[in-house]
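WARN  no MSA supplied for this record, continuing single-sequence
INFO  ligand: flavin-adenine dinucleotide
INFO  echoing inputs
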Amino acid sequence: MKKDAIVVIGAGAAGLMAAITAARAAPQVRVVAVDGAPRLGAKILIAGGGRCNVTHHVVTERDFHGSTPAAIRRVLRAFDVEAARRFFEAEGVPLKRESTGKLFPVSDRAQDVLQALLGAARRAGVELLHPYKVTAIRPDDVGGFEVDGPKGREAPAAATGTVTGGPAGLGASAVILAPGGRSVPKTGSDGSGYAMVSNLGLPLTPRIFPALVPLRLPDGHLVRALSGLATDVRLIVVSSSGRHLASVTGALLCTHQGVSGPAVLDVSRHWQAAMDDDAQSGVLVNWLPDVVAEDLDRRFQNHGARPIRRALAPPLPDRLADALCALAGVDPDEPGATLTRDARKRLVAVCTAWRLPVVGTRGFEVAEVTAGGVPLSALTAGLEARNRPGLFVCGELCDVDGRIGGFNFQWAWASGTVAGRAAAARVAAGTMEPVSG
Ligand SMILES: Cc1cc2nc3c(=O)[nH]c(=O)nc-3n(C[C@H](O)[C@H](O)[C@H](O)COP(=O)(O)OP(=O)(O)OC[C@H]3O[C@@H](n4cnc5c(N)ncnc54)[C@H](O)[C@@H]3O)c2cc1C
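INFO  complex generated
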């Protein structure tokens, strides 16, 4: 039987955008988006603290890690920030730019972003099957795919008339994989996409790990007792030989389990990657990112009769200044003038290059994104599997992870658009010949 449907697996940010794009580009082609989560769009709803940081005012390939910058750039250029802004504006959700450069809906409601996507999908004629958890995808013998759903669950009547397939499955001439990664699995992205990818013969990066994730410190550590305190720092990931591997400046938040905040989230993927290569690598904290170590030493030397904590606070909060003195083995009430050279050096080191005693990350349960996935080198410019024509990949399943600030959604919008456009062209042309690119 001839199949003329595109089945999108996963109706999150990337999947919805892919489905909308495909349905708009080829209205004659049936587009079905399926999602297994109990709640549709859960990740969009929790994003940005319920406000959804939709994108960032400037997005380039340098804001991402994973696959090569050139491959990432090509996707980003196909649907840029202005295109995202226009899309949401046209769907009744204008965006506003905040001082950080992040773009949010003017309404500050993530719910409006989700409703805009669902409304656009409905108007474009996308059929949404939900909850419908895909358990396997099998190539059929006519160049298409069989998509297996929940056992004993028939493809709903709305779809069966137009989407071919067995009683518990869907038939498709093209499949767009958008099941996300492993982060916050209770939202539906439980990592099941990786097995589908592997079964279909696509490569995955050797490492798939949580990114944008808080770091844990040992039980009872002094910094955990500072829970709630936030300050600007510079974090530097260093190898065992002291080589600087990555550096991030921004806010650090002390939590009851360790550290979080934008700078920590951004550095976490570098820490994890460094640790996987070299267990002796680590993260150094400069608690005074605007101060050079030599200047701080001079400041301590010239501090006279005043307690040494006053050389740190302000600008640091008192509690932090005392904690840093404790870490250096220095009495915060000791006058600067009586500090020994050794004590002074220890305090300078703690303030400007303190090794954060990280014992791990908080894992996929709370990570905002997953690093690793399908390398873009395995996909054409249309994000179609080079070794499996008709199979497209987009969103977080790709080996692309962005820094904090709206970049991951921009990747979802852009890659969803590219995959949707290419899948529509593939099915509308009615050919399953491999394409170059
Ligand atoms: C707490 C939090 C806050 C965030 N805030 C922001 C932010 O403000 N800005 C930003 O840019 N990024 C943010 N992110 C990251 C962003 O949400 C993700 O990068 C983005 O949602 C990825 O989109 P995706 O469509 O690829 O995957 P997902 O959004 O994870 O969607 C995948 C969908 O596929 C479905 N699925 C999975 N497996 C199957 C299966 N077998 N069968 C059927 N369906 C399946 C899932 O149910 C899910 O709905 C945040 C992430 C988290 C966790």
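Residues 9-15, 34-37, 43, 46-48, 52-53, 133-134, 178-180, 183-184, 188-189, 192-193, 368-369, 395-396, 406-409, 412 surround flavin-adenine dinucleotide (CB under 6 Å).
INFO  checksum written, moving to next record
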